[in-house]
Amino acid sequence: MTQDDYFPQGALVAVLTTEPLDRPLDYKSPGGGCRLGDFVQVPLGPRKVLGCVWGQGKGGFDLSKARSISNILDVAPMPPAMMEFLGKVGSYTLTPMPAMLRLATRAPGLLDPPSMRKIYRLGTGEMPRETDARKRVIAALKETPNLAFTLKELAEHVGVGTAVIKGMVPSGAILEQDSPRDLEFPRLDPSRDGKVLSDAQASVATALRAEVAAERYSTTLLKGVTGSGKTEVYLEAVAECLAQGRQALVLLPEIALTSEFLDRVEERFGCKPAEWHSGVTMTERRRVWKMVGSGGAQMVIGARSALFLPYQNLGLIVVDEEHDTSYKQEEGVLYNARDMSVLRASLSGAAVILASATPSLETWANVQAGKYKRLDLESRFGPAVMPEMRALDMRTEKLSATRFISDQLVAAVNERIEKGEQSLLFINRRGYAPVTICRACGFQIACDDCDARMVEHRFLNRLMCHQCGETKEMPTICPSCQVEGRLAPVGPGVERLAEEVAEKFPDAKVAVLSSDLFGSARALKEQIQLIANGDTDIVIGTQLVAKGHNFPNLTLVGVIDADLGLQGSDLRAAERTFQLMRQVAGRAGRAEKRGTALLQTYQPEHPVIRAILAGDEEGFWQAEADERRLAGVPPFGRMAGIILSGPDLGDVTRAADLMARNTQALQRVGAMAFGPAPAPIARVRGKHRVRLLVKADKAVPLQAALSQWAAGLRLPKHVKLQIDIDPQSF
Ligand code: ADP
Ligand code: ZN
């Protein structure tokens, strides 16, 4: 902290408000002054709001007219690199400062009165009377020894009444403690020995350690097939980072993967790291936020928003499964956590590792351009090899419209069952059937509020909209023609596939893995453990299984519909399908048994299907890159989506037309607008959505042109404008 960061009289404060303020406001400093990054409470209109000291008040301003900062909060100030980060992400995504500040202070409850809330942890006292409920409380706490719960949160987590927990306090079986935010995390020990690495792994680990040890910014693609030991190897880079006393962040795309990952960290470093994602309680999140800010948390594993924690001393960010589309935040601040990781690291002199078996085209292109380094783990760890891949031509199979598993696939599964090995049947669709149609009039049941058909979920006995989550009862009469008993499911979902499996393999032990079938992360973990132990003959799964789990006895993968992702006009469809198919196929044959992947397809000569079968990755990327370069789209050109939405389609369309006619601000820089056209999802939650796409050369200052364009327009009252830089689909 220098003299310049101390403001005795007045300061600019970024405030947390719902108004889209684009600049900090002037306030008088409190007695004793304030410092850059201080979290403060300030008056704003009739309210008091959270703020952060963002800089010195501008000269010539009459301070006597400003209101005073009410008080400085008792937490570590926001680190300078974090302030810079928020500013840059804000200008990149065209997000006003208050929304950025909200992203950076999610969950801490900084303005809560000094918390008297107590937390409940595992004690050492003898349990007075062992009831089932009490045993469950102990078991749950043993599983998460370093998480903090309030009474209510713990009761909900375990599924018992609060009285059960209260009743365990007097004996000391449960401890009641104050001040959860100050609870330290146990120290991870980077000097413990990891697994003995193979030569290939060791040389990659050494290179990664060197990137971290250099203490300056760099980004490295860590590419290796599933099971090659990427996790093992990047944990070495984490060890280096921890040994330096710097903080490490590991981003995972899927919460379902965290529990397995936590166990691996514990095995490697002696205890579990801090966790940050939607499954973590508010109390715990407050603690993580504070401990990251004070340096008391050495390592965080989390979802994309963990990027906005106030790291004091960040040395490494790992983005695991970096190609995963869920790294793009699609609501609120529209940012891509993978890309913003690179920015965050560059501001802290930290290293980035992007790990994937199937990198995104963006990352591949950045390697080609020399911006990122690349390290490869060529083969699977140990004797395992990549599976043999074959297409099953569905045009020659005589399947009825209600059956989806071909005879060839049935035979292959039976062969595995006889050998005592496991098979995975993969279908990228939750629920029973994607469409419910009336066989009398052809009507298809759709969501009332979205441009989407309702998906039948037979386990729930309801129809569900996968856009907004709305459910309704399954009707027996057609809502359109009122004829009874003619509604029928069309197409397969994971639940329907399970039905067919039960019919075709009556004696097999079957497990269904779909994100909506598990009430808790624990139930899912138990199921995954059962499968890993070999207690299952057939696993039926959605894309939940495509990611990161190790099933050593699984030797066959059958993809029910390999063509699913290839429909539609999205330019990223080929890339997505290629990645997903390779990921899924990678589930087969992880131990000493060679696996087979069978792809059911109606278009075996489609170039993408052929590339998947040939396993010619570099060829695929090259062809894909050529196509995108020609089209001038990312990663070779810049793109933004302008989404206009509102309850009235007429208003929305008029606003979009108005924008399309007034593109001078874009023309000046040589950017072009296309559309308007219905957005990829044309109606969500009752709001109509129309999209314009803007395309520009790499060198064009697109954000400035977009702001000018949008600022020059007066939109109708109920029409909302949202700008999506680097949209996921185009
Ligand atoms: P990836 O992240 O590339 O999918 P993992 O790091 O998860 O690969 O490794 C796959 C499996 O192989 C894991 O169960 C891991 O523990 C094991 N493994 C990898 N490398 C080694 C090693 N050097 N020694 C022992 N087991 C290893
Ligand atoms: Zn809906």
In words, what does this structure look like?
It is a single chain. 45% of the residues are buried. The strands form eight sheets. The protein has a seven-stranded parallel beta sheet with strand order 12-13-11-14-15-10-16, with helices on both faces. Strands 17-27-26-18-25-24 form a six-stranded parallel beta sheet, with helices on both faces. The chain is α/β, with parallel strands linked by helices. Strand 24 (510-513), helix 14 (521-532) and strand 25 (538-541) form a beta-alpha-beta unit. It folds into six domains: 6-105, GIY-YIG endonuclease, CATH 3.40.1440.60; 116-180; 199-257 and 269-278 and 298-377, P-loop containing nucleotide triphosphate hydrolases (Rossmann fold, 3-Layer(aba) Sandwich); 388-432 and 492-625, Rossmann fold; 434-490, no CATH class; 637-725, Ribosomal protein S10 (Alpha-Beta Plaits, 2-Layer Sandwich). It has 20 helices and 31 strands. The mean pLDDT is 88. It binds adenosine-5'-diphosphate and zinc ion. Zinc ion (ZN) binds next to loops. Residues 195-198, 201, 224, 226-232, 381, 550 line the site of adenosine-5'-diphosphate (ADP). It is an enzyme of class 5 (isomerase). InterPro entries: DEAD/DEAH_box_helicase_dom, Helicase_ATP-bd, Helicase_C-like, P-loop_NTPase, PriA, PriA_3primeBD, PriA_3primeBD_sf, PriA_C.
**How does CATH name the architecture of the largest domain?**
3-Layer(aba) Sandwich
Helix percentage range: 25-40%
What separation lies between the terminal Cα atoms?
A: 46 Å
Question: By CATH's scheme, which homologous superfamily of the largest domain applies?
Answer: P-loop containing nucleotide triphosphate hydrolases
Domain Helicase ATP-binding: 211-377
Binding site for Zn(2+) 1: 438, 441, 478, 481
Subunit structure: Component of the replication restart primosome.
Keywords: ATP-binding, DNA replication, DNA-binding, Helicase, Hydrolase, Isomerase, Metal-binding, Nucleotide-binding, Primosome, Zinc
